[in-house]
Amino acid sequence: xxxxxxxxxxxxxxxxxxxxxxxxxxxxxxxxxxxxxxxxxxxxxxxxxxxxxxxxxxxxxxxxxxxxxxxxxxxxxxxxxxxxxxxxxxxxxxxxxxxxxxxxxxxxxxxxxxxxxxxxxxxxxxxxxxxxxxxxxxxxxxxxxxxxxxxxxxxxxxxxxxxxxxxxxxxxxxxxxxxxxxxxxxxxxxxxxxxxxxxxxxxxxxxxxxxxxxxxxxxxxxxxxxxxxxxxxxxxxxxxxxxxxxxxxxxxxxxxxxxxxxxxxxxxxxxxxxxxxxxxxxxxxxxxxxxxxxxxxxxxxxxxxxxxxxxxxxxxxxxxxxxxxxxxxxxxxxx
Amino acid sequence: xxxxxxxxxxxxxxxxxxxxxxxxxxxxxxxxxxxxxxxxxxxxxxxxxxxxxxxxxxxxxxxxxxxxxxxxxxxxxxxxxxxxxxxxxxxxxxxxxxxxxxxxxxxxxxxxxxxxxxxxxxxxxxxxxxxxxxxxxxxxxxxxxxxxxxxxxxxxxxxxxxxxxxxxxxxxxxxxxxxxxxxxxxx
Lengths: 335, 187
Hints:
Radius of gyration of chain A: 20 Å
CATH topology of the largest domain in chain A: Uridine Diphospho-n-acetylenolpyruvylglucosamine Reductase, domain 3
Radius of gyration of chain B: 17 Å
CATH superfamily of the largest domain in chain B: [2Fe-2S]-binding domain
Largest sheet of chain A: 5 strands, antiparallel
Helix content of chain A: 25-40%
Strand content of chain A: 15-25%
Number of strands of chain A: 12
Distance between the termini of chain A: 47 Å
Largest sheet of chain B: 6 strands, mixed
Oligomer: heterodimer
Number of strands of chain B: 6
Distance between the termini of chain B: 34 Å
Order of helices and strands of chain B: EEEHEEEHHHHH
Helix content of chain B: 25-40%
CATH topology of the largest domain in chain B: DNA polymerase, domain 1
Shape of chain B: globular
Shape of chain A: globular
Number of domains of chain A: 3
CATH architecture of the largest domain in chain B: Orthogonal Bundle
């Protein structure tokens, strides 16, 4: 690991200024991904600016009835918050399906959003990787890509974003509050991430020294209350997704009144399935229509030799979860 | 209580930190790269927490930080300045075992023992989380959580302990040991 200086500034302003002044400086929060990547030699900061004590650690109601989640809130605290569990069940389920109890206690909400891909080439400094070392090539296209992306990928990079939480946040229309050298701004969760194109080195639309200070959840609604997360993985627990879906749906008179669908582990960012959502709105709530809408979304898919199964998996998983949501509402339980 | 002094006059990559370990304040001067795990093992001689993978994947290094379980390999010593750390050495003594330690002995919940300190610290944290009613991934989605440690069953324990791997596969005895201890702690 490269040697680095460590500091704990007294304010967010000082922390942002500290990172802004040094291209090689990085913010540090829970450390669960960054410390690991430093040990692997993937990240080589010369300064760590610890912001964990500066970030919000509370989940507060907003004026419109939603929730403002400080970016320093532990993944475990967000997962078990009764308000989240009740009003946004998809978010609690996604968080609890991620990592392990120990990691969820250390990992922060902000850090979860900014964790890096688990592509084996990205994490192995002895191999080329366009994301880690621009222009060095992507061995994954021909090599080990069974776990990698089918949507939004490029010639240069087929990495997937590993977060479960971010997939749920995409489905519940969360926004992200940022503070940077140029002031504060708010972006929709989807806008936080960029697609790789010919520059996979940047995962997000954040500028250097921009800091996530909070995640905002919209007011509770019948839609978000009728939501769930399904994760397909190789082990029953403590494994990254092979595919996942965060979905919310409200049925009215047998028709889909409103729907949100986001897929995980198939793209460089949580994949909000706008095409499928548009196809479903106002249509009959039945399994065949669900499958057809998701198939329409997947027309854009560009699978490779060993991850083509993800197209079928995503369609079947998506249709199954939407069917479950529809049945739960017809039974009147609403979740 | 915090003793953090970042950067020595001649070296910005070294810090002096104050960590309360097993109820005793320790002041250490460390290379900033030092993990909490290495600080415990190499600086303080507390070799109970084990280095299995050093990547947060095996759980052998699990300790309690301010009462919550965490992987000590992924925490830098400088990050925990001012915090309370409890290791397996601080849970109980040979004559006065912690209920989880006692349960692991009674149930023969280990073979080689390498993962055991992490398993036990993790179980202590998991039992406290269950005691606070925290749901897990296998808790029914329509409930806010579980009804304290009484809500634990084998499936809940397997899920909650999934961050601790055992190469000897002593899981079949670890699960009942954790359930025994959970009952005793809540009694």
